[in-house]
Write a structure and sequence with these properties.
By secondary structure, this protein is of the alpha/beta class. The chain folds into two domains: 5-120 and 304-315, ATPase, nucleotide binding domain (Nucleotidyltransferase, domain 5); 131-299, Nucleotidyltransferase, domain 5 (2-Layer Sandwich), CATH 3.30.420.40. Helices cover 39% and strands 19% of the residues. It is built from ten helices and twelve strands. Strands 3-2-1-4-7 form a five-stranded mixed sheet, sandwiched between helices. Helix 3 (115-126) packs across helix 10 (305-315), helix 5 (191-203) packs across helix 6 and helix 7 packs across helix 8 (233-257). The longest helix is centred in the C-terminal third of the chain and has 25 residues, at 233-257. It starts with a strand and ends in a 5-residue tail after the last helix.
Length: 320
């Protein structure tokens, strides 16, 4: 068995991604649309196929050469028991013994982690959080998730589900979050929320750029950033609003965790160059004095934060 080679899995409701990781290098990767209709059994079959595919692509590798398998999974996951709870994006997984079955099906030692915490671990050990003893990671995509490192330790909390930053309540009125609560950070600042504001602008014909984008297909957050870079006034306003909401939520996270830095990942990090100034303006305005200089930086690992975190669970268990 190789002590420095692991299989990493990133399981989401849309895509299943699997990678072969050696040390701090991602050697090979493969992906499939997640077969949510097939339930746990069908997805575990997908995982086994992808594992065999990856191992077969590297000369001399067998499952006996792999130290273990780490999974980053859309949560919530009770990592104390390795059990899936009520995962909104994966129907049929409630009370499923995920870690036990993953190990049994693959024949490898297994560990599972909530996706936000896994991505935080990946950025802390291999990305923009390297060297920090206190860090907050925030992923902003369809929703908002995250994780934290406090005093040099990955924060998990009771049941291993700490870091649901997206469900801080920020307003008494406003959009309803997918969790059912009005005014969550996620409902205001996620990529989905930005997309909804962009669609409203397109339908109201207040943005020529978004109107033209809609003729070519669905309007999303990337169109907003592209429009802002092209100088569209309404897109610039949408970006300013997004930076304001992100800055407000990040300021609350800074007050709670007192990090050295905040790392921003997920799909909206592609617009970080447009968001950074506005985010920092809100922090300087709203944070208590000792917290106003905390920097917000872009994630370095991109879509691989969760995969590298999952591998770290196996390859660096002292920190994972």
């Amino acid at each position: 068995m190789s002590a420095n080679t692991a299989i990493a899995i990133d399981l989401g409701g849309t895509q299943l991604r699997v990678a072969l990781v050696e040390g701090n290098r991602l050697l090979e990767r493969a992906a499939l649309p997640t077969d949510t209709a097939a339930g746990p059994a069908g997805i575990l079959l997908q995982i086994n196929r992808l594992v065999d595919q990856l191992i077969g692509q590297v000369s001399g590798r067998t499952r006996a050469n792999i130290a273990g398998i780490g999974m980053s999974c859309a949560g919530p996951i009770n990592t104390e028991t390795g059990t899936a709870t009520d995962i909104p994006t994966l129907p049929g997984w409630n009370d499923f013994p995920l870690c036990e079955e993953l190990s049994r099906q693959t024949g490898l030692p297994a560990r599972v982690e909530n996706d936000g915490i896994a991505a935080a671990l990946g950025e802390w050990r291999h990305g923009a959080g390297r060297g920090a003893r206190n860090m907050v990671y925030l992923t902003v995509s369809t929703g908002i998730g995250g994780g934290a490192v406090v005093d040099g330790r990955l924060l998990r909390g009771h049941k291993g589900i700490a870091g649901h930053i997206g469900h801080m309540k920020m307003a008494q009125d406003g959009p309803v979050c997918h969790c059912g609560v009005v005014g969550c950070f996620e409902a205001l600042a996620s990529g989905t929320a930005l997309q909804q504001r962009a669609m409203a602008a397109m339908e109201a014909a207040t943005s020529p750029y978004l109107a033209a984008s809609a003729e070519r297909g669905a309007v999303d957050a990337r169109n907003v950033f592209d429009g802002a870079r092209a100088g569209d006034a309404h897109c610039l306003n949408l970006v300013a609003d997004e930076a304001m909401y992100l800055g407000q939520g990040i300021t609350s996270a800074i007050h709670m965790f007192s990090p050295e830095r905040v790392v921003l990942g997920g799909g909206l990090s592609h617009g970080f160059d447009l968001l950074a100034l506005g985010i920092h303006d809100v922090i300087r305005r709203d944070a208590m004095m000792p917290f106003r200089t905390v920097p917000v930086v872009a994630a370095e690992l991109g879509d691989d934060s969760g995969l590298m975190g999952a591998a770290t669970l196996i390859l660096d268990p002292k920190h994972g």
